[in-house]
Amino acid sequence: MPKKMDTNVLVKKIITEIQSGELVDQDLKLPAEPNLMSRYEVTRYTLRQALKQLSVMGYTYQVHGVGTFVRHQQTVDSVALEHEGGLSAEMERIGRKLTTKTASEKIIPVSEALFLPKTHHFQNDDKLIQVRRFRLLDDKPYLMEQSYYLQSVIDSIPEEALYGSLFKYFEQSRKTQIGFIDQTIMSEPLPDEASEFMEMPAGSPSLLIRDESYLANGELLAFSKQYYNYQQAKLFMIKKVH
Predict the structure, then answer these.
(1) Closest to 89 (Cα-Cα) out of 28, 199, 6, 3
(2) Contact yes or no for 232/149 (Cβ under 8 A)
(3) What's the pTM?
(4) Residues paired with 12 in a beta bridge
(5) Is 14 exposed, middle or buried (0-12, 13-18, 19+ CB in 10 A)?
(6) Distances in whole angstroms, Cα of residue 70 to Cα of each of 29, 55, 183, 228
(7) Closest listed residue to residue 118, CA positions, set 230, 24, 220, 13
(8) What residue spans of the chain are helical by DSSP H?
(9) Residue 100: strand pairing partners
């Protein structure tokens, strides 16, 4: 009887065996679906969800009538922009370790936010949970996150989530399952606190990603700015033509 396995766990297992070379043949072709289902003891649905995620991440592609093949990897040392999990899980998949060095959380009126999304209308008495995290990649300064969560949607965020995966925390809550995330990539000078953390001169360039996270019902959950150390940040995206 097939085991109940989380899709992300299965994705990690497949990637590990792809990278070790034990899963693909000389043409970089994966085994047929029945063989993979038997190998991992999972249902066809779970396997297909994992294969879909691998395709989105740029690991595999499908040739109709032939099978699924592994792409020559450009994502080994870079983050796939279209990953379906959180950043911590994506880093783990490529063999990197993302940790939070310091984090802070406080409730503020919307008028005190340093930035707001242009697509959402706030009331004057709306409250936000302001979260700031300084994060390390393989123990080196990598990222400063400045995020705001709508308190009308989420009352508070536990400390263990601040120092772990916020994405996983919200996904495990039925109330706050994320439906989609809008991202804009640009560049901005590092804020003073980020410059100090990354040990760079004030005003140094940074890779900036602005996020707006929405629930499955379309309700805004959070918006953020993520300042990356440009010397370490490497992002990857595939463009499917057909």
Answers:
(1) 6
(2) no
(3) 0.74
(4) none
(5) buried
(6) 6, 9, 27, 29
(7) 220
(8) 7-20, 33-40, 44-57, 87-93, 159-162, 166-171, 192-198
(9) 135
* pLDDT tens-digit profile, the chain (242 residues): 566 778 888 988 888 888 777 888 888 899 999 999 999 999 999 999 999 888 877 778 888 888 899 886 555 567 767 666 678 877 876 778 899 999 999 999 999 999 999 889 999 899 999 999 999 999 999 999 999 999 999 888 999 999 988 888 887 876 777 888 899 999 999 999 999 999 999 889 999 999 999 988 889 999 999 999 988 888 777 666 65
- Residue 161 is encoded by which pair of tokens? 């989530």
β-strands 235-236, 79-80 pairing: parallel
**Tokens, residue 70:** 């592994």
The amino acid at 144: M
Mapping DSSP to helix (H, G, I), strand (E, B) and coil, where does residue 52 land? helix
